[in-house]
Each structure stands twice: as structure tokens, then as C-alpha cells.
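seq:
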Amino acid sequence: MKTITPKEIEERLEKGEELHIIDVREVEEVAEGMIPSAKHIPMMQIPDRLKDLDQHTEYIFVCRSGNRSGQVCSFLEGQGYIAINMVGGMLEWTGELEWNEQNS
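struct:
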């Protein structure tokens, strides 16, 4: 499984790169803040939302600690998607946060 650190994501965002970040935490968790530009799809909805994901796009998955996003990455890789897990999760994120329920 491919991984990326929170610091690497922050550096790439600061350079203006367009990243496809998906936060798989629950609604009450994302209420505490999300990585700017991240899209919210709760983990349990991923299997039903495959049609919303492009198999040729690289996605970075985020959760609280990196465990759930790692499970999502394993599942999606098995389905032919390009999935990268943010190790350490939001517990290790030190960058900006946004609070925007429209990401759901």
C-alpha cells in the first residue's frame, strides 16, 4: 500500500498541487475540521460511492489515525483504484483546517 505523510501533503498543497483527498471519518469527526479541499465520504459509504471515483485518479485517504483510511485503501486497490493512505491521520496533521459541511 502506498502511503504519504501529513507533512508531504501539506508541502504539496502549499506548492499549489491539486490533490484528491478523501476524508473517511464520521460526520462528528469532520466537524472538528478537515484538510482544506478534502471531500468527505464516510468509510462505510465507500463501497456504494465507487461510481463517484475515477480509477485513473490518484486519491489520498485520511481518517483520525490512519487505520480506517488504510482499510479503505486496501479495499480500493483490490477494486483497481489508485489509493494512498495518509499515515498518522488527522492526529498528526499540523496544517490548516477548514470547517465546511458542503464537502459531504
